Amino acid sequence: MTVSAPLLIDGLRVLAPSYQGILCDVWGVLHNGVAAFEEAHHALRTFREETGGKVVLITNAPRPAPQVAEMLTSLGVPGEAYDGIVTSGDVTRESLVAQGSKKLLHIGPNRDQPLYWNLEATFTSDDDESAEAISCTGLVDDETETPDDYRDRLQKLADRKVPMICANPDIVVERGDRLIWCAGALARLYEDLGGEVTILGKPHAPIYRAALKMLETLSGNAVAKEDVLAIGDGLPTDIRGAVSQDIDVLFITAGIHASDFGPSDAPEEPLIRRRLVEEGLRARAALPRLWW
């Protein structure tokens, strides 16, 4: 890390010349679940065009990269904004393949079914008694449910010592102007109830290894971590993950922590600094939203 505290800057253009590659979060940075942020995808596209650097999107979405690309297109994020995508779903699939043909209990919405396509394991969504492991991608209905609705069910599974694989470590994400519960909230509850949880997405190392490997493949050469910039809005996932990997980070403050730093479009730097110190984190720079 080159700077130990955040500095509110004019735009990504201030940092761009210092980096060969970007690892950029998706939800909360490029879109809010309803619409794309035009200035954000313009910034990434401009970085690619003006520096020749590569952009890998790194997301805790519990779905394979092709499905995430389709979603981005539908929201208005053009393919010219990035070179590749690595998802928590991708690294979760690798883990599930390694586990073989266990009977897995899926907790999550039907839209996450692509995660399990062509896997050998047997999946169920309602046979808790015979499940040998849990694959959690989220709440079944994240519009109406809360983690507490799952407490009794998860307690019984924890008592049986059924291990959980969490495919999306996010606790909450933006959807329009609301915050929606994610799989990470269920994983946190499961641990509190005594359950065993494996988490593979941000802030954990497996997804960063995959993203850095993709960045090097796209670049056609080795890329040192000091030449990579991570961009994200989540302190416990994006920022902590980048710091743990010794990767510089641009903190987007108007995402899930928008209410913590004063006006969302004019965050107060002392509040950002204080929060990062409290969390034991650091950032190269900060912006309310990603722009060039």
CATH topology of the largest domain, by name, is Rossmann fold
Number of domains: 2
| DSSP summary: helix tally | 8
The oligomeric state of the chains shown is single chain
Terminal CA distance reads 22 Å
Low-confidence stretches: none
| CATH class categorisation of the largest domain | Alpha Beta
Helical amount: 25-40%
Could you tell me the strand content as a percent range? 15-25%
Shape: globular
- Which sequence of SSEs, written as H and E, runs from N to C? EHEHEHEEEHEEEHEHEHEHE
CATH-level-2 architecture of the largest domain? 3-Layer(aba) Sandwich
The average pLDDT is 92
Largest sheet: 6 strands, parallel
Number of beta strands: 13
Keywords: Hydrolase
InterPro entries: HAD-like_sf, HAD-SF_hydro_IIA, HAD-SF_hydro_IIA_hyp3, HAD_sf
Pfam families: Hydrolase_6, Hydrolase_like
Protein name: TIGR01459 family HAD-type hydrolase
